[in-house]
UniProtKB/TrEMBL annotation:
Its main location: membrane. This is ABC transporter permease protein. GO terms for molecular function: transmembrane transporter activity. Keywords: Cell membrane, Membrane, Transmembrane, Transmembrane helix. It is found in: Cell membrane. Signal peptide: none annotated. GO terms for cellular component: plasma membrane. The chain crosses the membrane at residues 33-55, 75-96, 131-151, 163-182, 214-240, 261-284, 290-307, 312-331, 343-360.
Length: 370
């Protein structure tokens, strides 16, 4: 009777997942992708709490105000989502090339070039209907950012230049171009203390989602992340990109156009960051100036790594990192910490994420082994 009861229970599918020896083998990798980044984030928070305690602050107060400043009120949520919008787009600038085995960290440069391109389009089309101007700004921002990162991909493919180094150097070139134009050819004579371009016009701003103070850039980011996920995991193009990323020699042998894949993916990646620049101009700043170099491109690198380069996972991670950034002001007011202290936390998180990379595939119980 005992054997029959066990057999019937197994047939009915009532065995718990933990008791199923094949469950962890089938789903261990998925659990790893959640467990390890989560543990890295928790470890970083603990270390940051110790760091703050050394300055006489209560770590529990730190965690409370971080949560409250990020998610405690509707105002906090709106601030968090507003900051998350550009992070989603700049994270895609790193996550998409990673499918090809490339490490692109130049999202900040593509954002700046996208912002300049979008502003130029808006100023050139003054007097046109707002919808026409806004569409032109989107197109210009995507093309500007896309070409900027595609340059890094081309240097890697045709000249053997490391894309990590070239994309980082291109950030500083983009910043120099922005400063040169904003302080020279494109400068608004009325901007005396802080050089800026002329305003794009209130009618050409993209505004906020009805009923909220969150701009439409969040919607752009969500659509871009979902589209990127579908492209990479549910299309022939995405499959070819992942094959090339896994083994570029095998991809060439089977006849895949590796050069085309690299240039296309880099253009799409840069286009996402360029769109973030357009959003910052059309939804926040209203013009181009040095305030655009706010570090969203660099934080996007952390978002992409914490999300394991998965375009869908980028969304919740960007919201989390946006919340940490949004809590900086409250930490300054309530605990007397510098507003930039959240940058220290982001750095600690990045170190923990990189260190935790060695754990993937090495946790025995997630492989169904004891």
């Amino acid at each position: 009777m005992t054997t029959e009861a066990a057999d019937s229970a197994e047939a009915a599918g009532t065995i718990a997942p933990a008791a199923d020896p094949g469950f962890l083998q089938r789903h261990g990798a998925t659990i790893e992708y959640i467990l390890i980044p989560g543990a890295a984030l928790a470890g970083a928070l603990v270390v940051f709490g110790i760091f703050v305690a050394m300055f006489g602050k209560n770590p529990l107060d730190l965690y409370f105000y971080m949560y409250y400043g990020a998610f405690g009120t509707w105002f906090s949520w709106q601030n968090t989502l507003t900051r998350a919008a550009p992070l989603i787009l700049t994270a895609l600038c790193t996550a998409l090339p990673a499918q090809l085995g490339m490490v692109i960290i130049g999202g900040e440069g593509a954002l700046l070039i996208g912002a300049l391109s979008a502003t130029s389009a808006a100023l050139a089309l003054q007097g046109m209907p707002p919808l026409v101007v806004q569409i032109a700004m989107v197109i210009a921002g995507v093309i500007g950012g896309g070409l900027w990162i595609m340059l890094s991909g081309a240097l890697r493919q045709y000249r053997g230049v490391n894309e990590t180094i070239s994309s980082l150097l291109l950030v500083y070139i983009a910043l120099a171009i922005l400063n040169h134009l904003v302080e020279g050819l494109m400068r608004d004579p009325a901007s005396l203390n802080k050089p800026s371009t002329r305003e794009i016009g209130a009618a050409n701003m993209i505004g906020s989602i009805p009923g909220t103070d969150v701009h439409w850039g969040l919607v752009f980011g969500l659509i871009a992340a979902i589209a990127a996920y579908i492209l990479i995991y549910h299309t022939v193009f995405g499959f070819a990109a992942r094959v090339a990323g896994a083994n570029i020699r095998a991809a060439k042998i089977v006849g895949l156009g590796v050069s085309k894949l690299i240039l296309t993916v880099c253009f799409l990646a840069g286009g996402a960051a360029g769109l973030a620049g357009m959003v910052e101009v059309a939804a926040v700043q209203g013009r181009t100036n040095a305030n655009l170099a706010a570090g969203y491109g660099f934080t996007g690198i952390l978002v992409a790594f914490l999300a394991r380069q998965n375009p869908l996972a980028v969304i919740p991670v960007a919201i989390l990192l946006g919340g940490i950034s949004a809590s900086g002001g409250l930490l300054q007011r309530r605990l007397g910490l510098p507003d930039a202290s959240v940058l220290v936390l982001q750095g600690i998180i990045f170190v923990f994420v990189l260190a935790s990379d060695a754990l993937y595939g090495r946790i025995g119980f997630l492989k169904g082994r004891s």
